[in-house]
Fold this sequence. Notes:
There is one protein chain. The chain is an alpha/beta fold and about 300 residues long. About 40% of the residues lie in helices and about 20% in strands. The protein contains ten helices and 13 strands. Strands 5, 6, 7, 8, 11, 12 and 13 form a seven-stranded mixed β-sheet that branches. The protein has a two-stranded antiparallel sheet with strand order 1-2. Strands 3-4 form a two-stranded antiparallel sheet. Strand 1 and strand 2 form a beta hairpin. The radius of gyration is 27 Å and the shape is elongated. The protein starts with a strand and ends with a helix.
Amino acid sequence: MTVDISDRPAQFKLHELRCFDAVVRLGSFQAAAEALGRTHPSVFAAVSKLEERLGLVLLDRSGYRVTLTEAGRMFHARAAVSLREIDKLGAYARQLAGGEEPVIRVVLGDLCPRSLVLPILSSFFAARDRTRLHLDYEAVGGPAERLREGTADLAFHRSDDSDAGLEQIVLGEVQLVPVAAPGFLPFELESVTPEQLRPFTQCVIRDTARDSAEEHFLIHGAHRCSVADHAMKKELILHRMGWGHLPGFMIEEELRTGALQSLQGRHLPGRVERLAALRRRDRLHGPVAEALWQHLTGCAA
């Protein structure tokens, strides 16, 4: 492969770019040669040839370890993006050559109504027996993190308009209602304030993201009981072990019978979240993943 980077006749080959990138990432010509399955002299020659073609000194070889020059730093930042795009294009070509992806990885978020989403997935994958559906569960910031790191193809979770890297299909709304079991709180439930609730245990969902600062409805200073999902949270609240916010679709019967009581009011308004199917904008999606996205678009419409 030959890439022309300007109007001048300087051209370079893909393997030269890969050698340069490996040296930068791994810190030496020897480490790059081992990773690429090449010899040390061939990697050294490829990087030197790249510098010659560009008319730039990319690496400072005067020290114990090679380091980037300023021009090398700027060039590598652009080259790394191009190499990622080439790798994604190659992966997409292999998907197309194989016909269909062997696996589609889907994450269900903690607010996802499974009675809504699972029938959609079941009907779609029933007609695609060559592609396996791999389902995972994540909470709070976990679904978006899985999409960003590339370990999930699709997620069903709350929509976040501030994340420009994700595109979404809005599927509906989920109301979060603050609730407690009868007798748990020793005061009238009308116009309950956060200050009144501070002495009582608050049940919260544990964030599965490794790098997340999301906080929802937390009363600072209150004792917290963290759980993995809303089903466990509901059980604890029903057994008068705490109070907390639960999705409305999970507690319709309990609110109707009085097994749970709403704390919703001026000081605890709850919240309505939009449920959406989410995927990365910058990723090439295979034929099955694209068909699933179009299927979800139709379901939303």
